[in-house]
# Entry
Amino acid sequence: MNKLLRTPVIAGNWKMNKNCEETKNLIEEITPLVKKANCKIVLCVPYTDLLPALSVAANTNIKIGAQNCHFEDHGAFTGEISAKMLSSMGVEYVVIGHSERRMYFSETDITVNKKIKAAIKEKLNVILCVGESLEQREQNITFEVISTQLKIAFKDIINEDLEKIIVAYEPIWAIGTGKTATSEQAEEVCYFIREIIKQLYDKKGADSMSILYGGSMNAKNAKELLLQNNIDGGLIGGASLKSADFSEIVKEADA
Ligand code: PEP
# Structure
């Protein structure tokens, strides 16, 4: 399938940044800069900012996402937020399996799989993050790591639900470090991800899946990364907190 048939996705991951007021201000700044964009634009904000974000982004081309969810609908899980709660607010996207969640909050491939299933049940769009550590890359086990992450994440996910899932390849060594994967490194793994999806499902599912790159993507390096055949957009951390930088990346995705 021609890459041009997949709509590019530019998603911001604000991480634990911005209060409600700052959220409104930043989305108001971003809105006019991206209003003519052809790509899909998603801002994944902290839970506490979801309501103001949804209200400011209403009637714009910006979709709002959360950065995590719990896999149970409700119950004794102090401090957690369920996929069901997110969908009831009008949230449309959720990031699942970000490396910071895996690293600092002990998320495993198995909990990632449960969260994806919960999110799909609630009709949320999932941005599933996979990626290897520097050690794993140096040990030449990148492909094994990614393949295991994907096979467990997609366990019991049926073909019809694939359209709700976007995969983001985020090498851990490139996140927040200023060290971007080269376009060749990123393309090689994104191509591999598409091959695994083809093995697990079929060519159609693999061809139509959006695969993003994330890891220190910015206004300067976005162009080359986004030109790659298997890179359909970006998951942007640091650069999504600045309206000018984020909108420049959106422009590159549209180019
Ligand atoms: C991320 O948090 O998903 C990310 C890619 O961060 P950064 O762009 O800051 O490396």
